[in-house]
Amino acid sequence: MLNTASSPGSSSSRREQVRLGIAIEVVTIVWMVIEATVALSTGIFTKSVSLEGFGIDSIIELLAGSILLWRLLVESRGGSEQQVGRAERCASWIAAIGLFALACYIVVDSAWSLLTRTHAESSWWGLGLAVAAAIIMPLLWQGKLRVAKHINSAALKADAACSVTCAYMSLTLLAGLLLNRLFGWWWIDPLAALALVYFIVREGREAWHEARTGDRCVCCESRD
C-alpha cells in the first residue's frame, strides 16, 4: 500500500521526487514517440522483424509511461491514495497484456520470415536508433529507480525495469543489425527478434506480478 503520510520535511522531499519523476516520464514519453516512429517506419521499409518488434515494444512502453505520468500528476496535485493506486495498477495491467501479445507476434512473424526466407535490408537509421537507445535507456532506468525508491512506487519500479530491459533489447537489436549489414546474414534478423522475446516475456511477467499483487484494476470504474 502506498504511504503518503509523512513529516513536513519528508513531505517536501517527496514532492520534489514526484516532480523529478514527472520530468523523467515526460522525457521517456518523448523518446518513446521518436523510438517507435523510427523503429516501425524503418522496420516496415526494410522488412526487419527485430526493428518492428522493438517499435511495438516502444508503443507499449509509451502507453504505460503515459499512465505513470498521470499517476505522478495525480499525487502532485494532492490526489487520494486510491486514485494513485488505480493508476499504478492500470499501468501494470496494460504493460503485461501488451507485452505478452508482442511476444506472440514476434514468434509468429519471425517463424514466417525464416520459412519464407525474407531478407531484411540493413539500415543506418536502425543502427543509429539502437545505439541511441542503448545510451538513453540506462539513464532513464537509474532516474526512475531512484524516484521509485523515494516515493515507494511499485509501478514506477516496474517501469524502471522496462527501461533497463529496453536497453538490453537495443543491444540485441544492434548486434543483429550489425551482423546483417556486415556479413549479409539475412537470417540473423528474425533470430535477433526471437532473442528479444526472452526480455519481453520477462518484462511482461514482472508487470503481471505487480498487477496481480495489487487490488484489481479499477481504472474503468466510476468514481465514488
List keywords for this structure.
mainly alpha; 224 residues; single chain; Alpha-lytic protease prodomain-like; disordered C terminus
What does this structure look like?
Helix 4 packs antiparallel against helix 5. The chain is built from 6 helices and no strands. The longest helix is centred in the first third of the chain and has 39 residues. The protein has one domain: Alpha-lytic protease prodomain-like (Up-down Bundle), CATH 1.20.1510.10. It is an all-alpha fold. The N terminus and C terminus are likely disordered. The chain is elongated and about 55 Å long. Helices cover 83% and strands 0% of the residues.
SSE inventory with pairings:
Layout lengths: L7 H39 L2 H28 L4 H36 L7 H28 L2 H30 L4 H26 L11
Helix pairs in contact: 1-2, 1-4, 2-3, 2-5, 2-6, 3-5, 3-6, 4-5, 5-6
Structural class label: mainly alpha
| Text of the CATH class | Mainly Alpha
Rg over C-alpha atoms, rounded to the nearest angstrom: 19 Å
C-alpha termini separation: 20 Å
Shape: elongated
Quick one: how many beta strands? 0
